[in-house]
Amino acid sequence: MLSILRxxxxxxxxxxxxxxxxxxxxxxxxxxxxxxxxxxxxMPLEVLKFLAILAGMFCIYSFACxxxxxxxxxxxxxxxxxxxxxxxxxxxxxVIYYYQRLTILSLTYFLVEVILVxxxxxxxxxxxxx
Length: 130
What we know:
mainly alpha, 5 helices, 81% helix
């Protein structure tokens, strides 16, 4: 883990690529798997669509930062880490609110997503501190 952190500290723009790919994967799962097979997950379609659109916006932002930023990346990385944190808080709140409707499959998906995004936030904060 320390070697990954060192590599990211040397090339912090890579975090934007990782973040963008993660957001793309999230949007894909929400649109292609959770929405069409909603009866197996239980989260309302409107909520899934909203989360997918947010993930798509984060994806565009992160890829734009990766491809177009040169030196002034600190504020942009801070912004996406805050956005990721808010996304996790929103996801946890929605899981709590709709808990009675959700299946174990849905709970597992959202738990894994929050854990992965939280790990990414942790990495982003570590890189920002260096």
